[in-house]
């Protein structure tokens, strides 16, 4: 089983759209910033709309492994459970100890991104996670991935998918820069903060052709993050054009 927190939010079974989820969150957290509520809205919508048969990839950081399972049922709200453990999905675990070292760095970084529920679409993620579930081996990515067109497109990608991975060179290039001077670093950091985004590793900590992962800013408020029994929840769709985290 995987579990979402947000203990102040009630049953979401009646939500027919992402807007309905947003309304439920706004009622539960009237004093929260709109950008943060928007982030949570996308996470919870992903959680309740993931398809039966999707793969769940859950990092078990203290053991240095990830577990992969397959969703076996739809969204369920368990009113009798303790607060923070009521939004659930049933999972059959098919491979419980895939070594993190066996996963390519690009996919590993996406799996370990801050956002608890996001979607893997790029870098052959769907096929790679399916193969990991079957064999425990990551086949790696074939071919290049186009970066977003500008900072607005980056923000939209994160809202739609949960994370966006690109090289540090392409990342600063979104603002028209080619070098990481002090002024550029400060400007980009301020831009990220204003958009409610964060990047890891920081774009100053890798080579220009090294990969960074952008995700929505993580909240540290207890009970308001999506959680599983042991860690984060990530999903891929094995039979479609997209993959989910």
Write the layout of secondary structure elements.
Blueprint: E1 2-4, H1 18-28, H2 34-49, E2 55-60, E3 65-71, E4 76-77, E5 87-89, E6 91-99, H3 105-111, H4 125-135, H5 151-161, E7 163-167, H6 168-173, H7 182-195, E8 197-200, E9 211-216, E10 234-236
Antiparallel strand pairs: 1-5, 2-3, 2-10, 3-6, 4-5, 7-9, 8-9
Helix pairs in contact: 1-2
Could you describe the 3D structure shown?
Helix content is 31%, strand content 20%. The chain is an alpha+beta fold and 245 residues long. A four-stranded antiparallel β-sheet has the order 6-3-2-10. Strands 1-5-4 form a three-stranded antiparallel β-sheet, covered by helices on one side. It has a three-stranded antiparallel β-sheet with strand order 7-9-8, with helices on both faces. A hairpin with a 4-residue loop joins strand 2 (55-60) and strand 3. Helix 1 packs across helix 2 (34-49). The radius of gyration is 18 Å and the shape is globular.
General shape: globular
CA radius of gyration is 18 Å
Strand content: 15-25%
The largest beta-sheet arranges its strands as: 6-3-2-10
Low-confidence stretches: 219-245
SSE series: EHHEEEEEHHHEHHEEE
Q: What features would you highlight for this structure?
A:
alpha+beta; globular; 3-stranded antiparallel beta sheet; 4-stranded antiparallel beta sheet; 245 residues; 7 helices; 10 strands
């Amino acid at each position: 089983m995987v579990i979402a927190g947000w203990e102040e939010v009630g049953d979401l079974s009646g939500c027919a759209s992402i807007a309905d989820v947003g309304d439920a969150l706004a009622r539960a957290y009237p004093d929260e910033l709109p950008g943060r509520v928007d982030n949570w809205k996308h996470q919870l919508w992903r959680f309740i709309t993931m398809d039966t048969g999707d793969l769940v990839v859950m990092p078990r950081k203290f053991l240095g492994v990830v577990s992969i399972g397959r969703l076996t049922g739809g969204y369920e709200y368990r009113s009798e459970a303790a607060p923070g453990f009521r939004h659930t999905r049933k999972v059959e675990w098919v491979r419980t100890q895939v070594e993190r070292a066996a996963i390519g760095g690009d996919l590993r970084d996406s799996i370990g991104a801050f956002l608890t529920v996001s979607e893997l679409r790029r870098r052959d993620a769907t096929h790679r996670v399916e193969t990991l579930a079957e064999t425990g081996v990551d086949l790696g990515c074939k071919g290049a991935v186009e970066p977003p067109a500008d900072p607005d497109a980056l923000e939209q990608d994160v809202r739609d998918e949960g994370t966006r991975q690109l090289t540090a060179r392409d990342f600063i290039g979104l603002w028209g820069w080619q070098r990481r001077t002090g002024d550029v670093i400060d400007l980009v950091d301020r831009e990220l903060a204003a958009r409610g985004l964060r990047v890891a590793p920081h774009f100053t900590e890798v080579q220009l052709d090294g990969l960074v992962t952008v995700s929505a800013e993580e909240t540290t408020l207890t009970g308001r993050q999506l959680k599983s029994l042991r860690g984060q929840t990530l999903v891929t769709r094995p039979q479609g054009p997209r993959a989910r985290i």
